[in-house]
Write a sequence for this structure.
């Protein structure tokens, strides 16, 4: 009987992990199933573009996995019974159960409402394609008028605010944040970002904690009211509660507790990567929820799965965080480099060069996702199949 590997989620971590495992494990000994709620790969880093009105090219997962032997199940994960090695999903035909021998949990994250009343009822967010499309439709209905309030002061909030202000110059955009917008940036990078806000006519309300969201306004904790025809909540991410309810050991924020190889410390047949995992970096600090972290944790998790299942030595992937690249509209950006302690350095790339770099990152990720078998020489694949061993070195 084949060893059943189930990957939950096909985002940046899950989709690339599944392709990598399919390239390195013998198909006669292993079967890989990917469970994802949508039929297309969702480029989280482009959702602010979709919301503003630009349409990223869809990447159908069935095409991405063609020729890999991966089975794709388009279904929503509703629960995981870690003790029984069972995943329960909801499909168009009703509930179903999927058994596994090894589980790679990469369900990612969603918006964090921080317990603020009215967020789920009245606010929009861009953590998934349906959410971004819902915001875009609402902005279309505003027909170039009204007030848009973006809540948050970090990467997503900055990118959403600048993209909407540039692509849709009609509505007036305001950003409200409990601290300083981009407060972690170096002085030069933050100054450049603030100039972009001024150029795009975006008002900023710093040190403004939003205490309630209503249909036509947001209300700060101090009573200040901001009129809003479209409130975009971009005040951080939270993981889905599925892991915490599964029996897996998790941290206070619900992320799965793992060892250095991304293996669950409570259930050794479960691995995690991406936003779902609580991974401590080489600087002894938790890695942030980000695409960059998804890449490093995915590489470590797949190396561990292959090593643990085949008896090979598990290689150690560096767990580092090098910086933030933030779009400021279509032709402007900043890339802020950080040191080993995740503190911003004085140097940063700004303006058009940073925008070109950000486009390169986005396009490179999308290309790699669309070509999961790239870099796999047919001769080596046949040789590995004959010898019954995993392929040794293939770039993901």
């Amino acid at each position: 009987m084949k060893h059943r590997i189930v990957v939950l989620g096909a985002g940046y971590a899950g989709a690339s992990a599944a392709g990598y495992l399919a390239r390195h494990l013998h198909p006669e000994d292993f079967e890989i199933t990917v469970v994802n709620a949508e039929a297309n790969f969702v480029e989280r880093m482009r959702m602010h573009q979709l919301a503003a009105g630009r349409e990223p090219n869809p990447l159908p997962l069935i095409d991405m996995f063609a020729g890999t032997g991966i089975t794709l199940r388009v279904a929503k994960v509703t629960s995981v019974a870690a003790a029984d090695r069972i995943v329960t999903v909801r499909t168009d035909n009703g509930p179903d159960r999927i058994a596994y021998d090894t589980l790679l949990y990469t369900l990612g994250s969603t918006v964090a409402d921080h317990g603020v009343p009215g967020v789920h009822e009245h606010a929009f967010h861009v953590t998934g394609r349906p959410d971004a499309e819902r915001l875009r439709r609402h902005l279309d209905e505003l027909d170039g008028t009204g007030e848009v309030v973006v809540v948050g002061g970090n990467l997503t909030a900055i990118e959403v605010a600048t993209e909407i202000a540039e692509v849709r110059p009609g509505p007036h955009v305001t950003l409200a944040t409990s601290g300083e917008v981009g407060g972690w940036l170096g002085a030069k990078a933050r100054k450049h970002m603030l100039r972009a806000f001024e150029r795009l006519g975006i008002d900023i309300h710093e040190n403004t904690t939003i205490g309630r969201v209503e249909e036509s306004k947001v209300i700060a904790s101090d009573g200040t009211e901001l009129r809003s025809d479209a409130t975009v909540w971009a005040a951080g991410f939270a993981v889905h509660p599925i892991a915490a309810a599964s029996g897996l050991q998790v941290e206070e924020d619900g992320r799965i507790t793992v060892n250095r190889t991304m293996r669950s410390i409570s259930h050794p047949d479960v691995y995690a990567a991406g936003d779902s995992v609580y991974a401590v970096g080489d600087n002894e600090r938790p890695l942030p929820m980000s695409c960059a972290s998804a890449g490093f944790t995915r590489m470590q998790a797949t190396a561990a799965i292959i090593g643990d299942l085949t008896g090979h030595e598990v290689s150690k992937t560096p767990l580092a965080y090098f910086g933030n690249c933030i779009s400021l509209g279509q032709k402007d950006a900043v890339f802020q480099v950080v040191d080993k302690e995740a503190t911003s350095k004085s140097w940063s790339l700004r303006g058009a060069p940073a925008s070109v770099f950000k486009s390169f990152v986005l396009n490179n990720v999308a290309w790699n996702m669309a070509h999961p078998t790239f870099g796999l020489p047919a001769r080596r694949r046949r040789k590995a199949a004959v010898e019954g061993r995993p392929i040794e070195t293939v770039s993901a």
Observations:
- Confidence is low (pLDDT under 50) at residues 373-396.
- The domain at 3-108+240-322+362-387 is CATH 3.50.50.60 (FAD/NAD(P)-binding domain).
- The longest helix spans residues 291-310.
